[in-house]
Amino acid sequence: xxxxxxxxxxxxxxxxxxxxxxxxxxxxxxxxxxxxxxxxxxxxxxxxxxxxxxxxxxxxxxxxxxxxxxxxxxxxxxxxxxxxxxxxxxxxxxxxxxxxxxxxxxxxxxxxxxxxxxxxxxxxxxxxxxxxxxxxxxxxxxxxxxxxxx
Length: 150
Description:
It is a single chain. The protein is an alpha+beta fold and 150 residues long. It has a domain at 12-22 and 55-144: Thiol Ester Dehydrase, Chain A (Roll), CATH 3.10.129. The chain has three helices and six strands, in the order ββαααββββ.
């Protein structure tokens, strides 16, 4: 069994590098979520004052998966996690295509249970050059390692 010390509330889980959201990924996200003229009327989105380069909030939320896989500490070979859900998500400032974002993830709790560790983190997404964050999200993941009991 690997020697793992559970993180403590207030510990930094990870801080990502800056990441640029590009047009190709926004287009792929729109396609994957059926946000195209073949499926829905996008007139309201085209009419809003921020324009068509506004990044969808759910794309921002989905980036937590990318940042977690790339920057979060791992339990070792054979470890994995289950997305347990979010307790609170707020999109607090718009993000436009071409802007750079990064995430700071802080541990809220790490509760050992028979299925592994239920890890809750507060994730704040920042936009380069701005004080106000673009998104805050509390995320819960059930982490399993090679030595966890079933």
